[in-house]
Amino acid sequence: MLLLFSILLAMANSKVINIHVKVGKTLENMADEYNTGMRNIDKTLRINFKTNHQPHITLYMTDFKDDKIPDMIQKIKQTVSTMKKGKISQANGYREGTYVMWNTSIEKYIKQLSNTIVDSTYQFAKPNQPVPGWIKDLPDPEQRRRKTEYVQKYGSPNVYEEFEPHISLGCDTDKEALEKGFQGIHVQEAEFESFAIALGTAGECGTVMRGLDMGYFYLK
Fold first, then answer.
1. Residues 115, 21: Cα–Cα separation, whole Å
2. Helix or strand or coil: residue 94?
3. In whole angstroms, what separates CA 59 from the centre of its chain?
4. Domain tally, the chain
5. Kindly report the CA angle at 152 between 146 and 156, in degrees rounded to 5?
6. How far apart are CA 66 and CA 82, in angstroms?
7. Contact 45, 181 (CB under 8 A)
8. Which residues of the chain have pLDDT under 70?
């Protein structure tokens, strides 16, 4: 396994780290095209792949203990050294609340990527993190219970049974403008082969900041 590894000085001040799959140039260009199309319609869209953010698929995003980040990165280095490349499929686009997302098919391979990363790194996450308010509004009591439990133990509501992989294309609290932007694009199905897992600096709307990755690990 070839490894490009760096720890940025800014990492010490980074609260939340997004461990994600790199999508490659073809998928990045497609996501950029969709995002640009939406921004041409929705002038208040809060994701911009041209400047601040990078398309990605989150495997695990949480607030890690500052003094454990070097240990966490070493653990990921060891873990990824045993992980292989695989096919990942992008399906339909959809709007949910204040987000437009490009759905990633929940298949065995990507679920295994996420589960393995969570298993190996959650020990370094800050315990008993606050439960997001939106979880209390979920209609299914079992899902509310499970997501609450996952936040308390793993620092994320979106792991294991609640893992819902996707590429976020846009975010806006103005839902009407967001819907118009979404209706102005045509999201197509696509497939790519994973090649790397990276640690990104998390920004607003669950984004990963462009140019601020803290570690980059090639899959076998």
1. 13
2. strand
3. 6
4. 1
5. 75
6. 26
7. yes
8. 1-14
Are residues 45 and 204 in contact, defined by beta-carbon separation less than 8 angstroms? no
CA distance to 30, 167, 180, 183, per residue, from 41 (Å): 17, 20, 7, 10
- 93: CATH: 3.90.1140.10
* pLDDT value at residue 133: 87
Beta pairing, strands 87-96 & 166-171: unpaired
Question: Contact 31/169 with Cβ under 8 angstroms?
Answer: yes
How far is residue 191's CA from residue 3's CA, in Å, rounded to a whole number? Answer: 24
The pLDDT, as a whole number, for residue 12 is 39
pLDDT tens per residue across span 123-157: 999 988 999 888 888 899 999 999 999 999 999 99
| Rounded-to-integer distance, Cα 207 and Cα 117, Å | 19
The whole domain housing 14 covers 3-218
Amino acid 7: pLDDT = 35
